[in-house]
């Protein structure tokens, strides 16, 4: 697995170079390669835990993603200063694959500011939860004059976060991988920082989702 990770990351450098990416971005990928053995070990632990959690759900007969109508109950009905759109959702179930997603948009028509919240349940989507386990294990942190991207630890078991912020685009995005099953994403298109969407995340019962 370690050799594969190094190979994939090296390929990423080649692709970035061919696309004319900035030197700082190449250095970020190189730093990940340098720490590849540690990242691979953390990735392996995360995948093992995700498999364990999935097996526990299977033993309880919990093999399908929650219907989107259930997922939408976790999203705030309203946000102060915003008008809420009706939630949009979809559930898909086929053999070996079960996924539901729901999204709600909150708008301030005077300023044009929008907050989008998306919650996804990928209960039986093996490739998805393996990918999330990998993403959460990277320990990525990159900062530029325009903003930052970084993985963050939380005080809730089996919950990892990823924060993104751009000053020039005034865009903030917060994602949580929850319980090796759910993905929560909150995005603000007129942000001065990431603090407001963190407060929105506090309104959502992430701990309950993590224990499913």
Gyration radius (Cα, Å) is 18 Å
Q: What's the order of the H and E elements?
A: HHHHEEEEHEEEEEHH
Mean pLDDT: 78
Low-confidence stretches: 1-27
User: Distance N terminus to C terminus?
Assistant: 29 Å
> Which range does the strand content fall in?
25-35%
Alpha plus pi helix count: 7
Helical fraction equals 25-40%
Question: How many beta-strand elements?
Answer: 9
The major beta sheet can be summarized as: 9 strands, antiparallel
Class from helix and strand fractions:
alpha+beta
Shape: globular
Task: Characterize this entry briefly.
The chain has helices spanning 2-18, 23-34, 36-59, 68-71, 126-137, 195-202, 206-210; strands at 83-84, 88-94, 97-108, 113-121, 141-143, 147-153, 159-166, 171-178, 182-188. The chain is of the alpha+beta class.
């Amino acid at each position: 697995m370690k050799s594969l990770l190094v190979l994939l990351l090296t390929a990423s450098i080649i692709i970035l170079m061919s696309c004319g990416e900035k030197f700082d971005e190449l250095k970020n990928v190189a730093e990940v390669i340098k720490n590849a053995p540690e990242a691979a070990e953390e990735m392996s632990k995360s995948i093992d835990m995700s498999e364990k959690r999935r097996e526990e759900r299977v033993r309880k007969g919990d093999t399908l993603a929650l219907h989107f109508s259930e997922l939408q109950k976790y999203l705030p009905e309203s946000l102060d200063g915003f008008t809420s759109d009706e939630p949009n959702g979809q559930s898909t179930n086929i053999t070996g694959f079960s996924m539901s997603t729901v999204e709600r948009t909150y708008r301030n028509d005077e300023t044009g500011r929008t907050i989008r919240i998306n919650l996804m349940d990928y209960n039986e989507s093996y490739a998805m939860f393996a990918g999330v386990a990998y993403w959460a294990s990277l320990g990525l942190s990159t900062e530029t004059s325009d903003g930052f991207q970084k993985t963050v630890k939380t005080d809730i078991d089996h919950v990892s976060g990823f924060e993104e912020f751009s000053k020039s685009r005034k865009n903030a995005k917060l994602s949580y991988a929850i319980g090796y099953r759910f993905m929560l994403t909150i995005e603000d298109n007129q942000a001065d920082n990431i603090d407001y969407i963190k407060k929105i995340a506090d309104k959502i019962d992430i701990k309950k989702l993590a224990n499913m």
